[in-house]
Design brief:
The protein is α/β, with parallel strands linked by helices. Helices cover 46% and strands 11% of the residues.
């Protein structure tokens, strides 16, 4: 398994890692396959529990649907599907936090079973959240570990081949910070140690010794975060103790919310054993930037009556169905309008699949044609989009390549 090679290389002292692409956007996935081929590495493509689950998630896809979707993109791009590592991210009861523990965990069992049967071979289990009938306050690590082991047992029974596991969770919760902070709390060494020890004990208690040997990574907070208009950069000195600790363990770290980190910071993360780098919004943000730039070109090239009006159509779609952004974008109406377009959290990514948005985007691309565009370095519209996404991906793959 390729992830085993990453861990082994890290334990030999090599600064080597793998980007974890957490996106279902077809342009992002297409460029991921192309860039991974250039860097001669295997692509790791992940789906989250809210994005893809037995009820469809916000993409409308079940785990089996997502696998078929990725397979189709691979075939269209002549990429061997068998070389793609499929990962499930934050799998657990998170989508059902408002329910009591028993029904929420029953749904979580169905979720992980479906992921395993569909062929996902990297499974991040996250049971750190409180459920409706749990005691107030932070969930006890022992209870989180028992629930994690409960789900591992289901995966072990359902998976056609032994998967690799990731445990733990980052702070704050996924999706980006909602306010500008001077910094975030780096996971403490004792906290990381306790998570490993307690989770291992829960595995052993349930007879999951063999599964524990396949725990590849621990999710921690290395001190990186982003919000609407800010990025908290990686500071290696703040994570030095955490970095040294994992050298004594048979696993590496997985870092979430690494979006918008500089290529130099990404290299430092990999050097410090944060070998799995999760990225998602930064990639669709790059797609958004390209489309907005192309819309400006359209204004100059095309008569007003033929404009796609892609920006207006997008905003109308977001206002019509505000569920994906309303609780994330605070402030006045004007501030919310700006964030809908330009926030680094990129909640706009949930709306590209809306039929009216798809129609407007297709019209934009038809209006601009296949030829080179003045003011766009003589690139075509398609090349502009691909180039923006590729630049982000190359920062990640370059950081993860053997140094």
């Amino acid at each position: 398994m390729y992830l085993d090679e990453i861990v082994a290389a890290q334990k030999r002292g090599e600064a080597r890692g793998i980007p974890s692409i957490c996106s279902a956007h077809p342009s992002v996935l297409k460029e991921t396959l192309k860039v991974s081929r250039t860097f001669r590495t295997l692509p790791l493509i992940e789906a989250t529990c809210n994005q893809v689950n037995q009820f469809g998630g916000y993409t409308g896809m079940t785990p089996g649907d997502f696998v078929a979707y990725v397979r189709n993109i691979a075939e269209e791009n002549n990429f061997p599907f068998g070389d793609i590592i499929l990962g499930g991210d934050h799998l657990g009861p998170s989508p059902w936090q408002d329910e009591k523990a028993e029904p929420a965990m029953q749904k979580a069992e169905v979720l992980v079973r479906d992921y395993a049967r569909a062929g996902f071979s990297k499974i991040h289990l996250d049971c750190s959240m409180r459920l409706a009938d749990d005691s107030p306050g932070a969930l006890e690590v022992e209870l989180s570990a028992r629930r994690t082991a409960q789900l591992v047992r289901v995966v072990e029974e359902a998976a056609p081949t032994p998967p690799r596991y990731v445990i733990g969770t980052e702070v704050p919760i996924p999706g980006g910070a909602q306010k500008h902070e001077q910094g975030v709390k780096v996971t403490g060494v004792e906290e990381a140690r306790r998570t490993i020890e307690v989770t291992r004990a829960a595995f052993i208690e349930m007879g999951l010794d063999a599964a524990w040997e396949r725990v590849t990574a621990l999710v921690v907070q290395p001190g990186v975060e982003f919000g609407d208009d800010f990025v908290l950069p990686y500071r290696a000195e703040a994570a030095r103790g955490l970095s040294r600790f994992i050298e004594t363990q048979a696993m590496v770290y997985e870092a979430h919310s690494t979006d918008y980190q500089t290529p130099a910071a990404l290299k430092e993360l990999v050097r410090d054993h944060f070998a799995i780098l999760k990225v998602g919004p930064a990639l669709t943000f790059a797609f958004r930037k390209a489309v907005f730039a192309l819309a400006e070109v359209e204004k100059e090239m095309i008569t007003r009556d033929r404009h796609s009006d892609i920006l207006r159509v997008l905003d109308e779609a977001m206002l019509k169905e505000p569920g994906h952004w309303k609780k994330h974008y605070r402030g006045t109406q004007a501030e919310q309008a700006r964030k809908r377009k330009f926030s680094l959290s990129d909640r706009i990514r949930y709306y590209w699949t809306q039929p009216e948005v798809q129609t407007a985007l297709a019209r934009l691309m038809r209006n601009l044609g296949e030829g080179p565009l003045t003011g766009m370095e003589d690139q075509s519209a398609r090349e502009v989009i691909e180039g923006r996404i590729r630049a982000v991906l190359e920062g990640y793959y370059g950081a993860c390549a053997p140094q």
